Amino acid sequence: MDIEQYIWGMTPEGEAVVLYVMRAASGAEVRLCNYGATVVSVSVPDRTGRCDEVIAGCGRYDDYAGDPAAGGKTLGRCAGRIGHGRMTIEGTEYRLERNDRGSHLHGGSRGFGERLWEGRVETNRVVMSLLSEEGDQGYPGQLAAEVVFDFDDDHALEITYLARTDRTTPVDLATRLHIDLAGGGAAGAPAQELRLAPARLVETDGRLLPTGRLLATEGSSCDFGSFRPLHDAFDSDSGIDERHFLLDGWQSGILAEAGELRDPQSGRHMTLLTSQPCITLRSGTTYPGAAAPDRERSAVLECGFGPDAVNRPGLLPSPLLHAGELYCQKTVFRFGIEA
């Protein structure tokens, strides 16, 4: 595995934005940058051996600043929503910035995806670290976070999230990828097909917050027990282009297969593995235009604890991290070719 580093640009404060290129023996590549600890691009071969971009990223680092699609970024301190910007931890209520539909989203307007991380190369991996101080965006406790990126000759992008705190605080780190296995140069209607491991749907309301019910998916537009077109999940008139799947049989600390995505035309295939309990699925049509126009065809996948998990004990696993504990989660995007 070869890793190269380039200065991609400078922030207004004069800090360097670094682009890291991880290159496999086949010519497949992963590109990362330390602004937002972001996966900028992934290029993998199709059935003919031709490499092409399968992640809809941005062409310039400054396009990521304030990007509403949060494409490729590491989201935190808590990915997803915290309802009404409020949470109570060990008897103390905390009020956070309300930056989306009256709720707190992705750690706030200065969440982890909008920060410059410290990056370094460790032999055949890239490690990015960030220190979030007590009171950062309203959160309790100081949090030291690291994201480790590995990419191998089998074309598996492995992302490991590590964090420690000195005070009980919610932590839910996630990477949102806009995946288009057809490749950046493909034309026509979306053809990707999705299969998910057994899961229940977290029912949400008009503010995209849980209602308190978990729904069976069998026979619904969200039934992905076998391969079917991705966009079947978004054919309702509800106007809510977001779905959260709580994985059945999830066990803390266990990396397990969560789903598969395939593109019959190119032959590309991706297996998703995660230690996280919930998969958030969106359609790229939610983000038309913007800095990455190919997003309209993409499948938007994000693994985490689920919406408003800190306020939903008994419905979703708790994202609370206590002093002295190690937060360790892993998600793997394993790219290949269907036989």
Binned strand content: 35-45%
The total strand number stands at: 28
Could you give the distance between the termini? 25 Å
Overall mean pLDDT stands at 91
The chain-level structural class is mainly beta
Fraction in helix: under 10%
Please give the radius of gyration in angstroms.
19 Å
Number of helices: 0
SSE succession: EEEEEEEEEEEEEEEEEEEEEEEEEEEE
Give a short account of the largest sheet.
9 strands, antiparallel
Outline the low-pLDDT stretches.
Answer: 287-293
Going across the major beta sheet, what is the strand order? 11-12-13-14-28-24-23-18-21
Shape: globular
Description:
With 339 residues, the protein is mostly beta strands. The protein has strands at residues 2-10, 16-23, 29-33, 38-45, 51-53, 74-75, 81-82, 86-89, 92-95, 104-105, 118-122, 125-132, 143-151, 156-165, 169-170, 174-175, 177-179, 193-196, 199-204, 210-215, 228-229, 242-247, 256-262, 268-274, 278-283, 299-304, 320-321, 327-337. The strands form 7 sheets. The protein has a 9-stranded antiparallel β-sheet, with no helix packed on it. Mean pLDDT is 91; it is low at 287-293.
